[in-house]
Specification:
about 425 residues, Rossmann fold, single chain, about 35% helix, 14 helices
């Protein structure tokens, strides 16, 4: 099953939020939710998880959370999840969960499923897992049956433990499933050599620059944490389908803060890596990383949706975006995707102002030393270029500046003009 549309009405900070993931042949495989702290990214993910639980389970999850879930001033809140159950099913399948308050102040949930009892559709086919921003690096839990309430629990309770990865692999092996196929997928996501991950009598080991056959507990949080939540998915698959016959995952996976514990190089590739290894999974994620957002450009526009949440007057609003093709990380940060004013050192503007003040003076010896120091700093900082194209653009810019100020300033002064540095700074902000 895949989600085609998410609608929240009067849920926490959202008066009316709609995220459309539909496409002509089903649903987009990726949703990346962006936004500042406090605009409801985790609320959206939790709402999706709640909407995919049955009533009793959703009520239990709500009890884990502090604060109001019905928007102030509203009598009820609604979470509506529309799904495409499987290829060839043309009807509208949806789960609509309505939240109201009882006379005792407790939440009352009522759920309406459409269709209710068709012969060719069953809600028991819904496979979903969720991973919260506080998910543990190490997994210790030992579970015996699948329930959506349990499989999404780490999104609601950050103290919850994921399943034991070694135990999951051994259980899968006992079902006569070739676990080497799972290990090869994990190796590609973790970007280690083929055959680097092994399951032996001492547990799961990984070869790498750190040495051979190293126990996972000795490795960095990035490797261990990613390995743990990926194997947690397989553990739920085994419990969901006790007659597990293959290593392919199909379902909906929710991940809050996808970039957690990952180096920037890994952040940039994680979406492509997961997409390649789990092509039948729909990933619903949030992120604070511009590099993860750049990673969406490895997908086609009809495979990926980006939703940007931002604070409006008294409510949170949303806007849709496409993968930011052709953009650098600093350009993504200063775009409407992140709305960062500048990626430059905060001291640059202050240094230009100080430099300008000294420039206008008949400087004494100590002022001259400071003037030269600032000149060197600004010239090195603002004059740096990463590519040959940027160097050529810089040369053209310098020639233009010389021409602009040649009639007012002597040749040597042109290079040291505060206007020069300020113009370069502003152009850097724009470009």
């Amino acid at each position: 099953m895949e989600i085609t549309k998410i609608t929240l009405k009067n849920i926490r900070c959202f008066e009316n939020l709609e995220i459309d993931l539909s496409r002509h042949d089903g649903a987009k495989k990726w949703l990346v939710i962006l936004g500042d702290n406090g605009v409801g990214k985790t609320t959206v993910l939790r709402s999706i998880a709640l909407g995919l639980c049955e009533e009793a389970g959703a009520s239990a999850l709500l009890a884990e959370l502090a604060g109001e879930w019905i928007r102030t001033g509203a009598e009820k809140g609604t979470i509506r999840i529309e799904l495409k159950p499987y290829p060839g099913y043309n009807g509208v399948a949806s789960i609509e969960t309505t939240l109201t308050r009882s006379d005792y102040g407790e939440y009352k949930l009522q759920q309406l499923n459409t269709p209710k009892t068709p012969s060719d559709f069953s809600w028991e086919k819904l496979f979903v897992c969720a991973y919260g921003a506080g998910r543990g690096v190490f997994g210790t839990a030992d579970l015996s049956e699948y329930a959506v309430t349990d499989s999404v629990y780490s999104l609601f309770n950050y103290k919850s433990e994921l399943q034991n990865p070694e135990l999951n692999l051994r259980r899968i092996a006992s079902e006569a499933v070739d676990t080497s196929l799972i290990l090869r997928k994990l190796e590609k996501v973790l970007m280690v050599k083929e055959g680097a991950i092994a399951l032996n009598k001492s547990g799961i080991t990984i070869d790498g620059s750190w040495g051979k056959s190293m126990p996972t507990g000795t490795l960095s949080d990035g490797y261990v944490g990613t390995l743990t939540w990926l194997l947690d998915m397989y553990g739920w698959k085994l419990l969901f389908d006790e007659k597990m016959t293959d290593t392919e995952l199909r379902g909906i996976i929710i991940v809050d803060e996808l970039e957690q514990h990952l180096h920037p190089k890994w952040q940039k590739q994680i979406i492509k890596l997961l997409s390649d290894q789990f092509p039948d999974v729909q990933f619903i994620t949030s992120s604070h990383s511009p590099l993860c957002v750049i990673g969406t450009t490895d997908l086609n526009d009809d495979e990926c949706a980006i939703t940007v949440l931002h604070q409006g007057e008294g409510k949170v609003l949303s806007k849709s975006a496409s993968p930011p093709r052709g953009k650098r990380a600093d350009q993504v940060l200063t775009s409407y995707l992140f709305e960062l004013y500048s990626t430059s050192d905060n001291q640059i503007k202050n240094n230009i102002e100080q430099y300008n003040n000294l420039y206008k003076l008949e400087r004494n010896d100590s002022q001259e030393v400071e003037f030269q120091r600032l000149y060197k700093y600004l010239n090195e900082t603002l004059g740096s270029a990463e590519t040959e194209l940027e160097k050529k653009v810089g040369q053209v810019l310098n020639n233009t500046l010389n021409a602009l100020f040649a009639d007012k300033i002597k040749d040597e002064s042109v290079k040291k003009s505060p206007e020069n540095f300020e113009l370069i700074r502003q152009l850097n902000e724009l470009l």
